[in-house]
Amino acid sequence: MEFDISSLLIALICLLLFSSIWLWQSQKRKKTAALVFSGIDQLKESGSTWRIQFRSLLIFLRIFTLIILLIAFARPRMGLETVQTAKEGIAIQMIIDRSSSMKEPFTYQGQEMDRLEGVKQVFEAFVLGNRDTLPGRPNDMIGLTSFAGFVEENTPLTLDHQNIVNFARTITPAIKIEDGTMIGDALYYAVLRLVAVDELLKKAGKSEPDYHVKSKIIILLTDGQQTRGGMNPIEAANFAKENNIKIYTIAIADSELYQKNNTLLGQFFSLNPSQVDTRLIEEVAGITGGLFSKAKSGEGLIKIYEKINLLEKSKFEEKFTTYKEQFRLFVYLGLGLLVLELILSQTLFRKIP
């Protein structure tokens, strides 16, 4: 519990003045005091009653009442929680592959679903937190892009994360006419979005010193290989490097089957045509100083996001505590004791003339 120091000092001064006046009046009453008893016997009889013996308790009751009211005047308050606000955040552009191959089976939390659905559920945990190992990214600007044969911007960079999650839920696998895996185009447009983030902040009224973008990253999730045509992913990676943007690439594939496919026999006779040659997206991540990872389940994807959380942290600079005022309790208690003293002084401990 905390107190307002200035209010406490004022209350102490008031208490000292009240005490001085009360002592002065007490001394004055002593000088003019006289016996009001008609005889010695009546004095002895009245002095032996318990009312006179315990009447001095009223003084202690008044002192205790003053202490309670003094505490109330000092505005006691209880700290409920300490809230941290970030002045430095990270701009994150998420890129999710929605090609038809993302309909392949995928497991997450013991349930089988298609890859795209698993990616969306883990993405939601990454953005909002899962109350377990992922704390969420509440202070980062996040944008969402999906791609197949063409690139689609689902949400621009924003701090409204619930809106991002809602739009992510609407992403569906591509139909045949729009199928493809335009990784290079998706990376290029993501870089453009991040390059323009400073202008976006100024328009939103969050320019320095209110909010500063500490770093810019792209997270690419795909289970396919670059489709012919479109921008070369290596060119897009170099463009990102020129603008100090890291790219984290994640391959959604079965690690064991991929290793078999990488053998000499597997190169001629593919054991699983849905497997992806990840060398290109590994190179993309390496060029920008990012990391390449591979996930074959939702739990594996969670661990990758945990690693990204450790590498890309927002900086907390401001702290403030929310309080609940407690002075009302002491005011009610003090007034109750004051009323009790008045009642007792006029009834049970009333002076008999």
Summarize the structure in short:
With 353 residues, this protein is α/β, with parallel strands linked by helices.
Describe the protein:
The two termini are 47 Å apart. It is built from 14 helices and 9 strands. The protein is α/β, with parallel strands linked by helices and 353 residues long. 30% of the residues are buried. The protein has 2 domains: 5-76 and 326-346, no CATH class; 86-318, von Willebrand factor, type A domain (Rossmann fold). Mean pLDDT is 78; it is low at 255-274. Strands 1, 4, 5, 6, 7, 8 and 9 form a 7-stranded mixed sheet that branches.
Tags for this entry?
single chain, 353 residues, alpha/beta, Rossmann fold, 2 domains, 14 helices, 47% helix, 22% strand
Q: H/E order of the elements?
A: HHHHEEEHEEHHHEHEHHHEHEH
Number of helices: 14
- Beta content comes to 15-25%
Distance between the termini: 47 Å
Helix content estimate: 40-55%
**Tell me, what is the CATH class of the largest domain?**
Alpha Beta
Task: Give the topology.
Blueprint: H1 5-32, H2 40-47, H3 50-54, H4 57-73, E1 77-97, E2 105-108, E3 111-114, H5 115-128, E4 141-147, E5 151-158, H6 161-168, H7 183-195, H8 197-203, E6 212-222, H9 233-242, E7 245-252, H10 255-261, H11 264-268, H12 279-288, E8 292-295, H13 298-311, E9 315-325, H14 327-346
Parallel strand pairs: 1-4, 1-6, 6-7, 7-8
Antiparallel strand pairs: 1-9, 2-3, 4-5
Helix pairs in contact: 1-4, 4-14, 5-6, 5-13, 7-9, 9-12
